[in-house]
Write a structure and sequence with these properties.
The protein has 262 residues and is an alpha/beta fold. The protein has one domain (2-261): 3-Layer(aba) Sandwich (Rossmann fold), CATH 3.40.50.300. The protein is built from ten helices and ten strands. Helix 8 (217-224) crosses helix 9. The N and C termini lie far apart (38 Å). 38% of the residues are buried. Bound molecules: adenosine-5'-triphosphate and magnesium ion. The site of magnesium ion has 4 residues, from helix 1.
Length: 262
């Protein structure tokens, strides 16, 4: 369903993604793990037509991602790492806008919006302006929005960052059902290794733009002769910090702050 072949992205002299190749099967839940700045979001941006690869081949749902952008875009939903809902609209209006953009018919719109907003427990707050939502509520709204047009492939870039345990469980249950029952293909990133262990059939670890390994968590432990995914991950990526803000919660808080200031 997703084919990545020798994918490279350069920003000037800096290589953010360096000759990465992997495939994700239909209905698979696939995790992309790696330290801050590893190149995870850049890879997702290329797969979702937001960035053009410097070189390499990308296929999604049978479409060439670079040459068949419109067809590619109709095939996936995405939940961004940075909140992207419009604060000055109500939650319902955000959903409506997205539905129109993706050509969901007005007949389907009402039932689907209700179903998804009920699922993420926001239906009773549908008419509130998004700026009155908490961070977790915005995240849930984004997830509901990413599912509106019943995509074949769903990209989740750190979907659970800043969410409480209850909401995280709710999200993984729902996403797991989409993969198993609707054969939706899910590619996600997370810094919570237990989420990858519990939900991904296979895991790819990238660092400094390079793919270090790919396999089930058992295979990764075996390769590294370690006892847990966390040990395997640290064995492969080392223990030093990457960004000035390596704690994902701190990154989240900083983003929220800069957003409210804008
Ligand atoms: N538009 C850009 N211009 C220049 N450099 C960029 C750009 N976008 C990303 N980078 C750099 O590419 C590298 C990979 O960034 P990316 O956002 O893909 O990391 P990530 O794996 O998603 O990290 P995180 O876990 O912190 O989200 C980083 O060093 C980043 O600074
Ligand atoms: Mg990222």
């Amino acid at each position: 369903m997703i084919e990545v072949s020798h994918l490279t992205k350069k920003f000037g002299n800096f290589t953010a993604v360096n000759d990465i190749s992997f495939n994700v099967a239909s209905g698979e839940m696939f995790a992309l793990l790696g330290p801050n700045g590893a190149g995870k979001s850049t890879t997702i941006k290329m797969l979702t037509t937001l960035l053009k690869p410097s070189s390499g081949q990308l296929t999604l749902n049978g479409y060439d991602v670079v040459k068949q952008q419109d067809l590619t875009r109709k095939s996936f939903g995405i939940v961004f790492q940075d909140p992207s809902v419009d604060n000055d609209l109500t939650a319902f209006e955000n959903m409506q806008l997205h539905a129109v953009m993706y050509g969901v018919s007005s007949k389907e719109l009402k039932t689907r919006v209700k179903e998804l907003m009920t699922l993420v427990e926001l239906w009773d707050r549908k008419d509130s302006l998004v700026k009155t939502y908490s961070g977790g509520m915005k995240r849930r709204l984004e997830i509901a929005r990413g599912l509106l047009h019943h995509p074949r492939v769903l990209f989740l870039d750190e979907p659970t960052l800043g969410l409480d345990t209850q909401t995280r469980n709710l999200l993984w249950n729902y996403v797991g059902n989409l993969a198993h029952e609707k054969k939706m293909t899910i590619l996600f990133t997370t810094h919570y290794l237990e989420e990858a262990e519990a939900n991904a059939s296979r895991i790819a670890i990238i660092d400094h733009g390079k793919l270090l390994t790919i396999g089930t968590s058992e295979e990764l432990m075996k390769q590294t002769k370690t006892q847990s995914l966390e040990e395997a991950y640290l064995y492969l990526t080392g223990k030093e910090l990457r960004d000035e803000q390596a704690d994902p919660h701190e990154v989240w808080r900083a983003r929220q702050r800069s957003r409210t200031m804008r």
